[in-house]
Every structure is written in structure tokens, then in C-alpha cells.
Amino acid sequence: MSLFISQAHASAAGPSAGGGYEMFIMLGMFAVIFYFMIYRPQAKRVKEHKNLMASMGKGDEVLTSGGLVGKIVKVSDDNDYILLALNENNEITIKKDFVTAVLPKGTLKSL
User: Which residues cross the membrane (predicted)?
Assistant: First the structure.
């Protein structure tokens, strides 16, 4: 029976010294990778979107996250809502957060 199963022998050496520092270095590297790959790009996108929302004004043509394209008729600063005219007959009220892009002037006429 010992032909197929090899015998295991215990090692006489103790644990290696200095094993704690490698783990801290590894955790530090993961933190740096997390910062540059996940946190920093997301923070940059949030900052750009806040600048976009702050720069919107009456008469701007915008695209919403729902796919609606319209012209801003009224901006309400106190409660972060805007009145958006889709055409001459339809106006909707949406939150500023749902605007994804400010389009160049004349985009509505070219559609």
C-alpha cells in the first residue's frame, strides 16, 4: 500500500521572520490601486457633472438621462428643478440631476 502513498514528514524549521511587513506593503499597494482605478475617476465624473449642473441656464438645449431633448425655459435654484420645453406645446419639470449633457445651440432645429 505504501507504493502509491508517499509519507509526509514534518519540517523542522520554524516560521519565517518578518512576515508582517509584507502584508502591510500588500495592503498599501491595494489601497493605491483602488484609489487610482476606482475612486479618482468616479470623483472626477461627479465633479464634472456638478459643474455642468451649475453652468446650465435659460435657453440651453439639454439631453436628459431618459433620452429627452429640450430647451430650458426656467431654472429654479431653490429646489434644483428645471422646466424643459420639448416643443411648443409640451413642457416638463425635471430635476437638474437628470441632465446628462448640454447640447450645442441649434441642435433641436437640426433634429
Answer: 20-39
List the chain pLDDT tens, one digit each, 111 residues. 566 777 767 666 655 555 678 889 999 999 999 999 999 999 999 999 999 988 899 999 999 999 999 999 999 878 889 999 999 999 999 999 999 999 998 888 888
Q: pTM for the complete prediction?
A: 0.66
Q: Is 47 exposed, middle or buried (0-12, 13-18, 19+ CB in 10 A)?
A: exposed
- DSSP codes of every residue in the chain: -TTTSPPP------PPTTHHHHHHHHHHHHHHHHIIIIIHHHHHHHHHHHHHHHH--TT-EEEETTS-EEEEEEEETTTTEEEEESSSS-EEEEEGGGEEEEEPTTHHHH-
